[in-house]
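Got a spare moment? Tell me how you read both lines of this record:
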Amino acid sequence: MDLTLQGLSIGPLELRFYSLSILTGMIMGVVLARNEAARRGEDPDHVLNIVLLGAILGIIGARLYHVFDQDVWPQYKANPETIFYVWRGGIGIFGAFAGAVTALLLYVKFKNLNTLKWMDIGGPAFLLGQAIGRWGNFFNQELFGRPTNLPWGITIPEARVLAEAPQYFGFDKFHPLFLYESLLSFLGVAVIIFTARRLGHLLRPGDGFLMYLIWYPTERFALEFLRASKWEQGGIPMAQWIGGTLVLVAIGLMVWNHSRRMPARADDEDDSNRVSRAAARRRRQRT
């Protein structure tokens, strides 16, 4: 038996902690989504079907986002077979998000489900999965930040520093960006769930998902300033281009969502009819 930070090997069998982190995040996301679906009066069994499709499209999207990073693309171009070595790490959250959302939209369209309601169910579940899955970066010793003297700085092997951020070779401690992102994402899950359950009367369909689109890209935008190695366009990290765009679009959609007139719900109409009938009875009794 051989135990390392990357995984556990028993003879020919190998358990990669990176993959285990991703899988654990998916499972906990499923649990949360099923609870939310039941609370909202939807069939929780749809969740697993969405996740199975989302896992496939999410992995494809996440890997493509990473592979076409201008800094690593030459390596994959020279060794195209390594594109499929997902267990070695190298995925992009925004690519995973795009794949997972595509899967959700395709499924609810095929099943003729309420799209906005299911997007609200998926938002906090996505974020919980990311919060847990980010620990895979710790086990692979990747997604670290700039050098730091803070007591919670982590040691990164020199080989990884040379591969990802050679400009910082020789430094001992680095910001644990995976930890920052994980903690902020856990906080985001708590905020979204609290808002949905305690302040739901102030929300409109789709707001829960838009809250996710504001929360996660904002935290990612901020943390990019600390990241040691990043994919840039025009001197700005690609994650900030994408994150900033998503935040602005989500805020605009939320403003529009609350400014438009909502159609009367069936239960509201029933309440209105009951009030009208009661008023009519009182008028008849007075006459």
